[in-house]
Amino acid sequence: MHVALAVSAFGDGGVERVMTALAGGLAELGCDVDLLVGRVEHAYLWELPAQVRVVPLGVGAPALITALRSRPPALVLTGKLTDDRAALAAREALGRGLRVVATVGTPLSVSLAAKRFNPLHTWRQRLRVRREYQRLDGITAVSHAVADDLSHRLGITGVPLCVLPNPVIPADLDRRIGARAPHAWLELGGPPVVLAVGGLRKVKDFPTLLRAFALLPADLNARLMLLGEGRERRRLIALAGRLGIAERVAMPGFVADPFPYLAHASALVVSSRREGLGNVLVEAMAVGTPVAATACPGGVSELLEDGRLGPLSPVGDAPALAAAIEHLLRDPTPPKRLRAAAAPYRVAASAAGYLDFFRAIVGGAAGGSA
């Protein structure tokens, strides 16, 4: 099968990581794969199999139409609203039986409400998304919570919908985690390091994490490391200074491969306001690193089995998050349980699930939600 995966605004986020990993996984299964991206030099693309064709892509429907016309695929997969809309326009323009599938990685109703539109504008945006998504040939969701949001809060029905695990865990995981400690703080025998990974954006709510870290008991002697880049950097540095923890907080910036960091960290914490799944949680679990998270809208609670695989705390509650981190450092979840829970997110297994869904869509056999 010839498939195209499109991400025009190609940044450092989870959508880009997922689409790149999925492109590689599908290629390994024998698919003819075009990965259409806005930044062909991005570090995420460096280790792709040679058989994946990486194609420069501009933003908007005309750019996507041009790319798809040169090599018409049977199906195009998109992961952001801008690309979803462009793909629907491309299907109308090309008229060659192109199938359009969107993969949804966040609870869309919550995401739209967080844009700070006035209520009428938010309502209109929800209606627009509902109308557009009703025209899709298929939808994949990263968690049952995201799928329920699409069906029950946005009212999207009649479109084949399948919950599929993200392709998160690479085949060469052992090689990646066997690398030497990538930072001096992570050397064996040092103080415990609490790790957080993600773009320095408001949705990740790193200010609450900093406040929680400042509340940890002194006897833990812990350090905090934030991997990621974004417009909130200055604000976070200033807050760490006001809290008196600047000397115990490191912010190395964006890291293309977090596995060596996760393998040497004492714990991974997600403080987000919303997460469709939380890929970094799966990555940490895959290497046996204990995890804690906020019980935010999306699939985090589902992934952590309502707290059985890692403590959950309310969104924005620094004292509760501090208690969760302390519990994690003093009584970590057994690594064996975490690794077992992450197994379905291996790239090969995830790609096979996506390919089965694509075949059903192209063959016209896909049913309703799954």
At CATH level 2, the architecture of the largest domain is 3-Layer(aba) Sandwich
CATH-defined fold name of the largest domain: Rossmann fold
Mean pLDDT: 93
Tell me the CATH superfamily of the largest domain: Glycogen Phosphorylase B
Largest sheet: 7 strands, parallel
**SS-based structural class?**
alpha/beta
Shape: globular
Number of domains: 2
| Alpha-carbon distance between the two ends | 22 Å
Rg over C-alpha atoms, rounded to the nearest angstrom: 21 Å
**Which strands sit side by side, in order, in the main sheet?**
3-2-1-4-5-6-7
Strand percentage:
15-25%
**Highest-level CATH class of the largest domain:** Alpha Beta
Helix content: 40-55%
What's the number of helices?
15
How do the SSEs run, as a string of H and E?
Answer: EHEEHEHEHHEHEHEHEHEHEHEHEHHH
Task: Describe the secondary-structure layout.
Blueprint: E1 2-7, H1 14-28, E2 32-37, E3 53-56, H2 61-70, E4 75-78, H3 81-94, E5 99-104, H4 108-113, H5 119-133, E6 138-141, H6 144-153, E7 161-163, H7 173-177, E8 193-197, H8 206-214, E9 223-227, H9 233-243, E10 249-253, H10 259-264, E11 267-270, H11 279-286, E12 291-294, H12 300-303, E13 312-313, H13 318-330, H14 335-342, H15 347-363
Parallel strand pairs: 1-2, 1-4, 2-3, 4-5, 5-6, 6-7, 8-9, 8-11, 9-10, 11-12, 12-13
